[in-house]
Design a protein that fits this description.
Largest sheet: 5 strands, parallel
Shape: globular
Number of strands: 10
Strand order of the largest sheet: 6-2-1-7-8
Strand content: 15-25%
Helix content: 40-55%
Distance between the termini: 50 Å
Number of helices: 12
Radius of gyration: 20 Å
Order of helices and strands: HHHHHHEHEHEHHEEHEEHEEE
């Protein structure tokens, strides 16, 4: 059985770059349960046997996606959003008044709550931006997560995590057991699949704010350096990077840490060879 888990950890790492510790092998049983049912596979050993016998890229990717952590909620860890509202966005708006354009990237967006949170924040507190060119890009490794984010539909439990009642009514429509994001919110956000380590990533413009939160917790140091170097390339010289509360850049030569509002964000250092 241990050999099967070792094989699956290698599959996950090769595709999603997550390094799973052997102490977490028990997660394979629970997170792969639906995949096993869908493919009419009786147990983990049979799954590994099938993958060893014949290369199946689709099935391998399904395994990697199933083992990806997709924990999220609206306005998760509210401090970055409060700092964005009170300090960072007003400053960015002032500097972008000529172009009247703002770009945001929610990397590893999961089911889209982070991206939609940014959109709601701007609509609620910065009505002048209604006439600006605003784009919020969301990317995720998992196809299922991208599909759910694009649909903008959430169950009652999901919608109640982090959203006050008046915002639910303003920005979502009640449809049966779900709430669907209204067009004014959905039109600000777009979602697509992307592997953060497959650089360079294809974006047409640099971003003013990048959310790269709780993405690299199980990445190797090499993968972290690669992802953060790409974030540095894609961030505007006066832009802002948010990482998770327990994360920090792998290469501090690229970033200036700024502590404000009870949280830390990063601004890019200007490199001589840029």
């Amino acid at each position: 059985m241990q050999a099967d888990f070792n094989y699956l950890r290698e599959v996950v790492n090769s595709l999603s770059h997550n390094v799973l510790d052997p102490s977490r092998d028990y997660l394979f049983e629970t997170r792969l349960a639906r995949l096993l049912r869908n493919h009419e596979i009786s147990h983990i050993g049979e799954l590994v046997e099938r993958l060893r016998e014949r290369r199946d890229a689709t099935l391998e990717r399904a395994v990697a996606e199933a083992m990806t952590i997709n924990e999220t909620s609206f306005f998760r860890d509210g401090r970055p959003f409060e700092l964005l509202r009170t300090k960072l966005l007003p400053s960015l708006i002032e500097r972008r008044v000529k172009t009247r354009k703002l770009r945001f990237w929610s990397a590893a967006c999961s089911t889209g709550q982070e991206a939609y949170s940014v959109g709601m924040l701007m609509r609620e507190y910065f009505p002048l931006l209604a006439t600006w060119d605003i784009r919020i890009e969301g990317t995720d490794f998992a196809e299922e997560m991208v599909a759910r984010a694009s649909a903008g539909r959430y169950h009652r439990i999901e919608i109640n995590r982090g959203l006050p009642a008046r915002w639910i009514v303003r920005f979502f429509e009640h449809e049966g057991e779900e709430w669907a994001a209204k067009p004014e919110l959905r039109q600000m956000c777009s979602f697509r699949q992307a592997d953060l380590c497959q650089t360079p990533l294809s974006f047409g413009e640099r971003f003013d704010v990048i959310f790269l939160r709780n993405v690299m917790l199980y990445f190797s140091n090499e993968s972290r350096r690669k992802v953060l170097a790409e974030a540095h390339r894609l961030l505007a010289p006066d832009g802002v990077l948010f990482l998770g509360s327990s994360e920090q850049p792998a290469d501090m030569a690229l970033w200036n840490p700024v502590l404000a509002g009870g949280t830390c964000h990063y601004t890019p250092k200007v490199l001589c060879n840029n």
